[in-house]
Amino acid sequence: MSAASKVPAFLTRHLDGDRRFLILCDHASNYIPPELNGLGLAPDELTRHIAYDPGALPVALRISEALGCPLVASQFSRLLIDPNRGLDDPTLVMKLSDGAIIPANAKVDPFQDKAQWQARVEQFYRPYDQAIAAAIAAAKADGIAPIIMAIHSFTPVWRGQPRPWHTAVLWDKDDRLKLVVDAYMAGFPDICYGDNTPYSGRLKNDCLYRHGTRQGLAHALIELRQDEVGDEAGQHKWATHMVAILQRAVRLEGLGVVAHYGSVHDAATSKD
User: Fold this and answer.
1) Which of these, 216, 221, 220, 239, lies nearest to 140 by C-alpha position?
2) What is the pLDDT of residues 177-233, one digit of tens each?
3) What is the rounded CA–CA span in Å between residue 204 and residue 30?
4) Domain 3-250 belongs to what topology?
5) pTM, whole model, 2 decimals?
């Protein structure tokens, strides 16, 4: 990629704020550098969920503002490179997504066009990853083990099948924040609430594995159905729910401390 494509890989808010919390938004943007011509896709494809998580960033921003806490959000399309994947994941650079072939990604992998693959890692993936690491390091320097919440959104229909859940929690083996979400959602019987659905939170080397599981920090990924967060009213509603959950979590013993639960992918795990 040329120097013309040098744009910030991430945005941040309130890095000097309440470091007991850290909000992440991995799929916040559908930005693709202009010289890549939309990766060969028609413009309307880039407005779809395959390019980013619609509604996720406004919710994440509202949470950060309400709590005055750090936020780190990506500023590039997941089609360019997916920051919620490990570098060894074959879906790191998607070649096909929900029926759409991504022409410019056809050979972008470590075995064919490694130079282009590495350029995307260095220009987008790594700076975002390092920004998260820096926010965590700043909290730890203050003697704080931050509670991490990642905000994502999912399409209401997948391959012709409606998805009933309004929201869901994704988690691996560390259930500390997940149990807080469970208890909170139990008070709202009108909310269709999912557990590790429509995706699993047990994806080795994903963002929360790298920054939550490995470091023993309480964490969870929250999925919000896109029609629930498609306007300001919905974004405000769900941000308010998430703020309430985090305010509950920080008052509980065992949340704001380091505890290694490990992962289902580990050969052996333990609680420290």
Assistant:
1) 216
2) 999 999 999 999 999 999 999 999 999 899 999 999 999 999 999 999 999 999 999
3) 24
4) Aminopeptidase (3.40.630)
5) 0.95
